[in-house]
Design brief:
Blueprint: H1 12-20, H2 25-37, E1 44-47, E2 49-50, E3 53-55, H3 59-75, E4 78-83, H4 93-101, H5 107-116, H6 123-131, H7 137-142, H8 146-154, E5 170-172, E6 179-180, H9 181-192, E7 199-206, H10 211-229, E8 232-239, E9 246-247, E10 265-266, H11 274-278, E11 284-288, H12 299-329, H13 334-346, H14 361-372, E12 376-383, E13 391-395, E14 405-409, H15 419-426, E15 430-431, E16 435-439, E17 460-466, E18 469-475, E19 488-493
Parallel strand pairs: 2-3, 3-19, 4-7, 4-11, 7-8, 12-19
Antiparallel strand pairs: 1-13, 5-6, 9-10, 11-16, 12-15, 12-16, 13-14, 17-18
Helix pairs in contact: 3-12, 4-8, 9-10, 12-14, 13-14
């Protein structure tokens, strides 16, 4: 029998808890070993920049890529995949602070709140719920009762926005009524994820506690959206598989337990959604976050660049498939092998080791086949203007066997105490907006098993607490970070106008959302 760290053994109850979680003792022990060993930091080589890891599409090429997209739309199944699990509570951090304090301490904050309240798309709903209690918004503002208004926005007695997911929040106002973030993604999908059969496909991942509410909203709005947009929607909704939760750890490397001695498992971060993505049967999948959407008047540029990214994917796939077919047959002259090697380096960003040309012909064929025959991700990158989050970098091979690879890296993954690494991080020119188009089939049309292309070393260990007790939590490799580490990757510069996230509630007051 194997131990549960520090030489202990798993009890029968532990084994039952692990099995009930959908996990195995072997997997839990792998996670515990990762806690003990620690996650080594990623070593950045240099930032991806225009001409060195980031492709800039000339205007003259855009029409060709749009034509490639239209070809794919007629012959392939398209889908938009939207992670929408997160609660919106962090959006309202400042408002919660004011609520706890009984109101705004700063007069400027109070006046800004009062001046802007009616600009929010959810204001009519707020007005209605307050009126239902016999009170009036204007009177509450006049009496400086902002805390009461905040309670009606955030708490269950009102809109309950503090506990809802972003998908269910009203983001944008229209003459005919306001739309939630989820509804905006429906509209957007109809503009670029609609196939030749007039079917627009989306897939939302949601938390189990909000699944019923998301499904209820969809049932209310789908018919109207289909009529207005002249399409048929196929919408899937799944939750994060509990089997992807990870064991929590206490000091000393032992499993963290409740006072009753039960093991604690925690959600494994958005990397857990790889299982949801892997179950989809479409050919081309657009991946975008729930909070990055704009009103109709600004959708044109977003849609244009989604089609361009997809067109680039299609053209790249055609070239890769042509190479892989030759390699699979063992064919190809030496000149063709040289051409494929050059293509792999320059267009697919595959690091070819210096010793490649010293390999035998079968070894070279095998190397190129293995590296070209992988899922593909085309990632939009915007110029860095100070937004927090990850970015595109060339990353060194930790084993020193290759020339490194292009990855999307978060700051938490690097050694922030290393001045050299801090310098590389700070010199980044572009930022990751999570604007990805995925090609998930091979040259024979078979679905890749996406779980085979994860770098488990790109997990993240964080400090959390459970009822006031500190613990260590393990996040699986991020969905667009380590979970796609061994995909073939191309970064493409896209306009900043395509990136309009809502991280705080006041972001909804930006011109892009009004």
């Amino acid at each position: 029998m194997t131990g549960n760290t520090c030489g202990g053994e798993w009890s029968e109850e532990d084994r039952e808890n692990i099995a009930a979680q959908g996990s195995t003792v072997r997997e839990v022990e792998r996670q515990l070993a990762l806690f003990r060993r620690g996650v080594p930091p990623i070593r950045l080589n240099r930032p991806g920049q225009a001409g060195d890891g980031i492709v800039v599409i000339p205007e003259t090429e855009q029409q060709n890529l749009l034509a490639a997209f239209e070809e794919a739309r007629r012959s392939r199944r398209l889908m938009k995949f939207v992670p929408a699990s997160g609660a919106a509570s962090r959006m309202f951090r400042e408002w919660y602070r004011c609520l706890d304090a009984g109101g705004f301490a700063d007069e400027n904050e109070r006046s800004d709140f009062a001046a802007n309240l009616k600009k929010y798309a959810f204001f009519p709903d707020l007005q209605m719920v307050i009126a239902g209690t016999g009170r009036d918004v204007d009177a509450l503002l006049a009496n400086r009762e902002e805390a009461t208004i905040l309670r009606f926005i955030l708490a269950e007695e009102g809109l309950n926005y503090g506990l809802l997911p972003k998908a269910l929040l009203k983001f944008h106002a229209y003459p005919e009524g306001s739309r939630t973030a989820l509804e905006e993604h429906l509209v957007e999908a109809a503009l670029y994820a609609r196939d030749a059969g007039n079917v627009s496909r989306l897939h939302f991942t949601v938390s189990r506690e909000h699944e019923a509410a998301v499904r209820a909203l969809l049932s209310r709005v789908i018919h109207d959206c289909e009529s207005r947009l002249d399409t048929v929607f196929e919408v899937g909704v799944t939750v994060q598989d509990p089997a992807t939760d990870t064991i929590a750890v206490a000091s000393g490397g032992r499993p963290f337990r409740t006072e009753a001695g039960k093991l604690i498992f925690r959600p494994g971060g958005h990397g857990s959604l790889l299982r949801n993505l892997n179950l989809l049967d479409e050919d081309v999948i657009f991946l975008k976050n729930i909070d990055n959407t704009v009103p109709d008047r600004l959708k044109a540029e977003t849609v244009l660049w989604k089609k361009i990214l997809a067109g680039y994917l299609i053209r790249l796939q055609e070239k890769i498939f042509s190479c892989v077919r030759l390699l699979a047959e063992g064919n190809g002259t030496e000149k063709e092998l040289e051409r494929m090697c050059d293509f792999a380096q320059k267009e697919v960003n595959i690091g070819i080791p210096p010793a490649f040309r010293d390999l035998s012909r079968p070894e070279r064929l095998s190397f190129l086949f293995e590296w070209l025959n992988r899922p593909i991700r085309i990632c939009g990158m915007v110029k860095n203007e100070g937004e927090p989050g990850g970015g595109p970098f060339w990353v060194d091979d930790p084993e020193g066997k290759g020339e490194g690879s292009l990855q999307i890296i978060e700051e938490s993954q690097i050694d922030r105490e290393n001045p050299e690494q801090r310098t590389v991080w700070s010199s980044a020119t572009h930022f990751n907006p999570v604007d990805i188009v995925c090609g998930v089939r091979d040259f024979r049309g078979r679905k890749f098993d996406l779980t085979a292309f994860v770098d488990p070393a790109m997990a993240v260990i964080t400090r959390k607490s459970e009822k006031g007790r500190e613990l260590l939590a393990l996040e699986r490799p991020g969905l667009w970070n380590g979970s796609m580490a061994f995909w073939n990757t191309v970064f493409i510069e896209v306009p900043l106008a395509t990136f309009n996230p809502v991280k705080t509630v006041t972001d909804l007051l930006r011109p892009q959302h009004l």
